[in-house]
Amino acid sequence: MVDRYGKRFTSENLRLHCLYYGLGLFDIQRLEYPRIPCYWIFDQKRIKASALPLTIVGSAGSKQLYHWSQNNSKELASGWIISGTTVEELTRKLDRPPDALRTSVNTYNGYCEKGQDHEFKRRTLDLISLEKPLFYAVGLWPGGANAQGRPCRNTRSQTLNTDGNPISRLYGAGDLGSIYGMLYPSEGGNLAECNAFGRIAGKNAAREKPGSPGPNR
């Protein structure tokens, strides 16, 4: 994955719920977001392997909001996937700076040959070189992930205001205000938190007296 200037910026290891934080980097000198869009660069080996998106989750997965072709031919024809016989041709089609992408690909291929990514520590097993034409690119934009972040809550499941004090009679559970903060607990961790804090919230809310301002106004 490279930014708008053809420079690699991450290990590319799958991070479903936190990579978009990195995409939101703002360049205060250029007054722009250099990673919006970013580009997924790959070669003929990948496009022949299978459909590009995940098929177990997401719009092209179990929800089937879009039926992605198994061999990616429909998306190639539509222009969603850009191709070039060389990295340089691909760069021209993307209208990106001519030398940076070639440098990034050469550097990455060197890491693949040595079996170690010195820049971003990509897993050795995932270091697969980009050397078999054609070469391809897909533009990527960050989208919504989950309701990580504010509002916070305390151990009583009370929702807190900006000063860290409980808001009267307001309780919360689940992702919104999660104990995990700005990250997402995969593999059902969010459901366990929902159950735990749902019980805590229900227990404490049931103790409130109707019409009262609550214990921590």
Compact summary:
The protein is α+β, with helices and mostly antiparallel strands. The chain has helices at residues 19-23, 44-49, 73-78, 87-94, 100-114, 189-206, and strands at 38-43, 81-84, 135-140, 158-160, 166-171.
Task: Give a structural overview.
This protein is α+β, with helices and mostly antiparallel strands. The protein folds into two domains: 19-140, Alpha-Beta Complex (Flavocytochrome C3, Chain A, domain 1); 146-217, no CATH class. Helix content is 27%, strand content 12%. It has helices at 19-23, 44-49, 73-78, 87-94, 100-114, 189-206, and strands at residues 38-43, 81-84, 135-140, 158-160, 166-171. The strands form two sheets. It has a three-stranded antiparallel sheet with strand order 1-3-2. The model has no long low-confidence stretch (mean pLDDT 88).
